[in-house]
Amino acid sequence: MWLDRLTGEQCRQLPPVIEPGRYQLAASGPVFNGHTPAFSGVLVSDGGERCQLGSEMRSFVMPKHAQATQSDQLCKAIVTIDADLQRSKLISPLMPAAIIGSQSHLLPLEERLLDVVQQGHLHQISQRPRLDLHYEDEVTDVARARRMAKGTLVHLASHSECWQRQTLSGVIPKKVLARFSEDDHGIYENRVYARLLDKIEHHLWGRLLALKSLQETLTQALEFYQSEEIDYRLSHEVCRLWGMTFDQGKTSKASERLGETLETLQRLHRTISGLRQSGLYLLVSQQAQVMGSLHLTNILSHDPHYRHLSTLWDLLDKATLISQNTPEERFRQNQYLAHAYSRYAGLVLRHALHPYLHGQDEGSWAGGIIRLQQSGLEWQLVNIASGEYSAAEILLTVVPWLSNTPRAEELQGLPEDRFIAWPAIGQELPNSAYQEHWISLSPSDMYCVERFGQLVDRALYRKVLRSYGRPLTKIPLKVLTLADGIRGVYVDHQSHALEVREAVSEKPVESLKKALVAANATQQGIALEILNQGVLALETCPVCRARANLVYQNPAGFRANCEEGCGTERYLRQQNGRFVFDQIVSGGMDFRTLGRRAFSMQI
Length: 603
Description:
Layout: E1 2-4, E2 9-11, E3 17-18, E4 23-25, E5 41-42, E6 50-53, E7 56-60, H1 65-85, H2 97-103, H3 108-118, H4 121-127, E8 132-141, H5 152-158, E9 163-167, E10 170-173, E11 175-184, H6 188-226, H7 232-243, H8 248-275, H9 280-283, H10 298-302, H11 307-319, H12 327-352, H13 354-357, E12 362-365, E13 368-375, E14 378-385, E15 392-400, E16 418-422, E17 438-440, H14 448-467, H15 477-483, E18 489-492, E19 497-500, H16 506-518, H17 522-538, E20 550-553, E21 557-560, E22 569-575, E23 578-584, H18 591-594, E24 599-602
Helix pairs in contact: 1-6, 1-12, 3-8, 3-11, 6-8, 6-11, 12-14, 14-17, 15-16, 16-17
């Protein structure tokens, strides 16, 4: 049985077209693409479209070139972060400095190409190429003939139809066998030139995409340092995470250096594009390929211009050497990347849970224990109530999916607590933390911790808010009498129930709990304590951590405004028969300027 990781459901048959990384097989399966016996684990590509499992043939969804380039950069960042995770548990989840540093300089190929272009060697080849003369014999009018072919007289003697007339002294020809010569631009060296331009253009385009993405990340980082529109608390938190990699000065210098490299590569790209639209390139057939290793002819070795082609060709081969792994090696690497991406998701979740767990995987909150745990490649946030340690309630499930493909729009009926975390390569990120069940997860996204922070906040608040005001029934009469007059507790004698509507101090809660235990209502005593702990948790302002008094509001809501601290306003109210919780900061709820600190949700 296959596991559809996105939906969490089992399936017997795979679809004809498969999204890499979506399906998983726990037990040993058939041979994969002829190189991996007894396949198991995540079903990923080996670099090609073919997906053969035993005798069954399917195909993978392949990324476009732009997506593949951005995916390569993402994978480099994930590998770098994963290596650092082995040494430290809570590192920065943003783009590593090593990636930015290595990408912001010209590669050896690009330095050499810049030198060759500046000296004009490629332009000289384009305008004054080496040629070969191609000779062809053809019967033509005498007026067109410039040079007689070998055997012209013999041909004329045996073809009377080529005579104009015959005289006593001989034959006056009308047509003759003439030799014509044509310039042959398709020599081996010119084919090397044309295909080299193709390969360089492909390389430069990919590099430009990668550098533009990095430049956007650096620009976004600088905006957090300088923008007046972004809330200072959001700016401080993002800059703190970014500062684990770069400070403001280094960010500015890296941006300048990256800008210079980007400008140089754009200039080279324009030059190569111009050469591909004029001169020699247009005279060499697109079907004329250079197969195998480069053959060093005399021209490629000694011509003052052509000899630079072989150097560029070799440097380009070295730059793309990483893509020359065997299919089995690429398959194993892609499986490793799926696991590394899952560990990266765990890192982001630990940062998002830091206000609650302080970097640990488990801690107390709202009268229970919350724990971040990994289940296969998934991450779960679970709650364990006091006195019920055997029962863990899953509050949130995050499924990390390292994929180049867009969102799988056909997903329907997912549980409200299940979210797919994917890189959103080539997608325009929403102005909200997430959309439906999809949440962006990438080191190049400065908001990544904020997105998951709001996801965590919503999950934890939903748990507490659903319990708020819930009546405790079957309360003994003596306990109801004791509860009368306790501030924050509402007593319903007719229904033998009570509600915790506002925070109750420790001593009254303890006395009520003891009375319930003495009256053989132990479960109600435990529930009473948990409900009060939930209200106390709600009284802690999530923005500044100050105490905000929670005040009950009829018929079944509350307000908890941070009047002595940051001024954050929180309300639980009824709207169209459902409860709605609002958390408002500075009068707004814009995720782009406030991050996780403000939102609205239905309970």
